[in-house]
Design goal:
The structure is a single chain. The chain has helices at 2-45, 49-64. The protein has 67 residues and is mainly α. It has a domain at 25-67. Helix 1 packs across helix 2 (49-64). The longest helix is centred in the middle third of the chain and has 44 residues, at 2-45.
């Protein structure tokens, strides 16, 4: 029984980087959309031009693939 736990732990250590890469690739677009919506909500809470400029820069960066 103890050998099974060791083998599962070893397999998890081998597969963990692959799993994280798959998750990162899969959720990349959803995370970008969530970040943009959160920043837009914060911009609506305040009333200054600096927030609007920051939002525009982040949106442009995400379109270009920088962020």
């Amino acid at each position: 029984m103890n050998n099974i736990y060791k083998m599962v732990g070893f397999l998890f250590l081998l597969l963990k980087p692959v799993l994280f890469l798959m998750l990162k690739k899969f959720f990349k677009k959803q995370m970008k959309a969530f970040i943009i919506s959160a920043i837009e909500w914060l911009v609506l809470q305040t009333d200054n031009d600096l927030d609007d400029k920051i939002l525009a820069k982040v949106k442009n960066g995400m379109k270009l693939g920088i962020v």
